[in-house]
Write a structure and sequence with these properties.
32% helix; two-stranded antiparallel sheet; 411 residues; eleven-stranded mixed sheet; Peroxisomal Thiolase, Chain A, domain 1
């Protein structure tokens, strides 16, 4: 049985543009949600989001290539650069055994809108020749593969808000089943834009709270919608013996992946949480999670009335009484909901939590809804001797995922 370990991490988020900064800010309870700075919000009902701050794209690509590359791809390249350098994987693996799996929920929205406006206002000759390769949802995967000569397995997942976790989960199985020795896996998104704000707002999905620090409040009785975020997360998944032979730094062992569908509604979760419960069961069984394990769950925790309730039900349905022993938190309270990137970032958080034995907090939540009755870590990070961590994510269309990591100890 091939084992899979995490040997590199990279992140671009509203609370930091590298893993160390992101993690430190999360443990300190720093909120990355604020009033939108990148465009005028006067006509919008919602004026807050979790935007990436102080990010310089020229640290990732040449200035001349900026007009050819959508920002979601640039975010992916930045996170991949950090993860690859962190792992030291390049030069140690046959390129045909190195893969690239980067998920997204929407893709190059800014490029889509810009070229649509050009077509309508100035005619077809003004549509950029770079439009299609900037916009398509697989291009981050392709760009990362080109950058690192990853000629092996390649996949671009698009399962809404589960995209990042599906990408990482499918990469896990590809390494475990022998299709690759290492994969650059994660998710990216850059769609905090007037169009998406209007669309999500008009379907009553976004928080209407005006105070940015009190808008994303998972599990709170006053929660009223999610807050949009953006960024990218990438991790290097590597076959254990390969990593061990080259003396790689190992963050955690990746042991389980659940992937199911509610088959219920295009936007609403199964009211009983049955699909997610099954994803949790599958991943915990594959991961060999025992009753004696000390578990942390980074919940999807979107701060919507339905998600937080049904996710709580799903965790209880899957774990039974052991659900009350698990520490649970939602880091979306600090980043907002990063859509296709959110699963990747939350997987990274789960890896760091089990590695360091510390549970990051849910911030902003004051009064927990009685229907959300698990052990939520509120306000401040909490030290705990964790042996297992899990990350759960859901997406429009009914997608449910759960990723499970085990604390790694030298053998």
């Amino acid at each position: 049985m091939r084992r899979v370990v995490v040997t590199g991490l990279g992140a671009v988020t509203p609370v930091g543009n590298d893993v160390a900064t992101m993690w430190r800010n999360m443990l300190d309870g720093v909120c990355g949600i604020d009033r939108i700075k990148n465009f005028n919000t006067d006509d919008l009902a919602v004026k807050i989001a979790g935007e990436v701050k102080d990010f310089d794209p020229t640290t990732v690509i040449e200035k001349r290539d900026l007009r050819k590359t959508d920002m979601y791809t640039i975010f992916a390249l930045a996170a991949a650069k950090e993860a690859v350098e962190d792992s030291g994987i390049i030069g140690t693996v046959d390129p045909t055994r190195l893969g690239s799996y980067i998920g997204c929920g929407i893709g190059g929205l800014y490029s889509f809108v810009e070229n649509t406006q050009a077509l309508l206002e100035k005619g077809p000759r003004k549509v950029s020749p770079h439009f299609i390769p900037k916009m398509i949802g697989n291009i981050a995967t392709g760009q990362v593969a080109i950058k690192y000569n990853a000629k092996g397995v390649s996949l671009s997942t698009m399962s809404a808000c589960a995209s990042g976790s599906n990408s990482i989960g499918e990469a896990f199985h590809a390494v475990k089943d022998g299709y690759a020795d290492a994969i650059i896996a994660g998710g990216a998104e850059c769609v905090v834009h007037p169009l998406t704000i209007a669309g999500f707002s008009n379907m009553k999905a976004l928080s209407t709270t005006e105070d940015p620090k009190k808008a994303s409040i998972p599990f709170d009785v006053k929660r009223n919608g999610f807050v949009m975020g953006e960024g990218a997360g990438v991790m290097i998944l590597e076959e254990y013996e390969h990593a061990k032979a080259r003396g790689a730094k190992i963050y955690a062992e990746f042991v389980g992946y659940g992937n199911t569908c509610d088959a219920h509604h295009v936007t609403a979760p199964d009211p009983e949480g049955a699909g997610l419960a099954q994803a949790i069961r599958v991943s915990f069984e594959e991961g060999g999670v025992k009753d004696s394990d000390v578990v942390y769950i980074n919940a999807h925790g979107t701060s919507t009335p339905m998600n937080d309730k049904t996710e709580t039900m799903a965790i209880k349905a899957a774990l039974g009484d052991k659900a009350y022993d698990a520490s649970v938190s939602s880091t979306k309270s600090m980043t907002g909901h990063m859509l296709g990137a959110t699963g990747a970032i939350e997987a990274i958080v789960s890896v760091l939590a089990v590695k360091e034995g510390i549970v990051p907090p849910t911030i902003g939540t004051d009064e927990v809804d009685p229907v959300c009755d698990l052990d939520y870590t509120l306000g401040e990070a909490k030290k705990r001797d964790l042996t297992v961590s899990a990350s759960t994510n859901l997406g429009f269309g009914g997608h449910d995922t759960c990723l499970v990591f085990r604390k790694y100890t030298e053998e």
